[in-house]
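Section 5: illustrative case.
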């Protein structure tokens, strides 16, 4: 059990989930996930920050009771209404009927809409403060679209702890320790990129806005709703989120994503990968889009500056798994990737045309020399793909 004191007035009361196969029914969780929640104890009042997923509510209540000797918390602050955090609300209110829900107007509406709960609630405005007694007070900072419109962050100035909701979160259950200073947190960083690119990736400009807004706070601990509490590596985590939300790649590697039913498109992709390697590109990730999970493909695309997408023409459009990848890039407003396109067909070429059209309004740089080839790759087609890969290597 991870109940632990993380600062003078704050205890961790969250839970691990190592059973769920897919977060949001979509994203695989090989390392599990944590739903983080915190108990803030002031001179007079006790506040719980965020709930957990519904199936874990009893564990959270047990954690609270253990720390408060049965005294009911006075407040439940809801930073984010997505049910992975709000699912426990009804059970928490059953356990503590007088506990006041604290949120903004949108939160309070969502609490009513999701759970039919009207009262008791306290509606806060951006910048409001809630005193808990002594020098302990919470202040509320609205950070819309990180990751829903009602999202806010809560700051405990006396301990320098920012309860940041999904912001600065990552996949991965907590394996004993809670704070990064007490663990080797290396394993969480790839899961941070995968979490961000899958969950928050569409909202880069809102993350940027939040990062600017948070500069005025003296933060020494980042306590998000998923993954470790960040203290020692807090600046590194902030830099990761800054970089990802600016769509800036981490390195000059290349992601190659392809679909291939009978191996012809794959031959083109092998040629491209070998050319890139011969040109000195060391970090090349090749994904068969029908096999690799989308979250790993997106994480690699967020990581690498180069990208090649290759698809057969399929029913006059893209091969379905490639269509999903391209749609995901458009949805996320992906930009600044040096991108090459390859498309195969048997009687009517469509793949390159469709990818070109879909990606036109993103800020991705489509390298000229897209390769469209017919049936099995000819020597000319292989030469064209070598030229395309070489042009990408030039731009890295
Ligand atoms: C279900 C299906 C639909 C296809 N639709 C088209 C099409 O609309 N136009 C076309 O030129 N080729 C079409 N093809 C042919 C494929 O484009 C061709 O098999 C593919 O490019 C070969 O590449 P691969 O070996 O990498 O799968 C279709 C193939 C299949 C199996
Ligand atoms: Fe969320
Ligand atoms: Fe979440």
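Designed sequence:
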């Amino acid at each position: 059990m991870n109940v632990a004191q993380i600062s003078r007035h704050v205890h961790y009361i969250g839970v691990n989930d190592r059973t769920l196969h897919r977060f949001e029914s979509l994203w695989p969780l090989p390392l599990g996930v944590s739903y983080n929640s915190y108990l803030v104890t002031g001179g007079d009042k006790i506040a719980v920050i965020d709930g957990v997923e519904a199936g874990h509510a009893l564990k959270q209540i047990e954690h609270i009771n253990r720390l408060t000797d049965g005294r009911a918390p006075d407040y439940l602050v809801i930073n984010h209404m997505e049910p992975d955090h709000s699912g426990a609300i009804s059970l928490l209110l059953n356990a503590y009927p007088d506990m006041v829900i604290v949120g903004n107007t949108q939160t309070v509406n969502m609490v009513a809409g999701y759970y039919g709960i009207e009262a008791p609630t306290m509606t806060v405005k951006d910048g409001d403060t809630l005193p808990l007694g002594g020098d302990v007070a919470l202040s509320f900072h609205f950070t819309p679209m990180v990751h829903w419109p009602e999202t806010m962050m809560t700051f405990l100035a006396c301990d320098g702890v920012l309860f940041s909701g999904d912001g600065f979160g990552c996949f991965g259950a907590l394996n004993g320790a809670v704070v990064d200073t007490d663990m080797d947190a290396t394993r969480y960083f790839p899961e941070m990129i995968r979490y961000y690119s899958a969950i928050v990736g569409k909202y880069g400009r809102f993350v940027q806005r939040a990062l600017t807004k948070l500069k005025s706070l003296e933060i020494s601990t980042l306590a998000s709703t998923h993954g470790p509490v960040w203290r020692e590596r807090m600046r590194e985590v902030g830099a990761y989120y800054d970089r990802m939300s600016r769509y800036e790649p981490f390195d000059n590697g290349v992601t190659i994503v392809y679909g291939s039913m009978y191996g012809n498109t794959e031959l083109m992709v092998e040629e491209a990968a070998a050319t890139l390697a011969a040109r000195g590109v060391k970090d090349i990730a090749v994904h068969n889009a029908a096999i690799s999970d989308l979250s790993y493909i997106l994480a690699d695309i967020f990581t690498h500056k180069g990208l090649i997408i290759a698809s057969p023409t399929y029913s006059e459009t893209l091969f379905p798994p490639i269509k999903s990848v391209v749609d995901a890039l458009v949805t996320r407003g992906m930009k600044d990737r040096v991108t090459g396109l390859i498309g195969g067909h048997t009687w009517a070429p469509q793949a390159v045309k469709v990818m070109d059209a879909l990606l036109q309004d993103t800020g991705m740089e489509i390298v000229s020399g897209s390769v469209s080839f017919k049936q099995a790759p000819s020597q000319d087609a292989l030469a064209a793909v070598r030229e395309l890969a070489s042009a990408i290597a030039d731009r890295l």
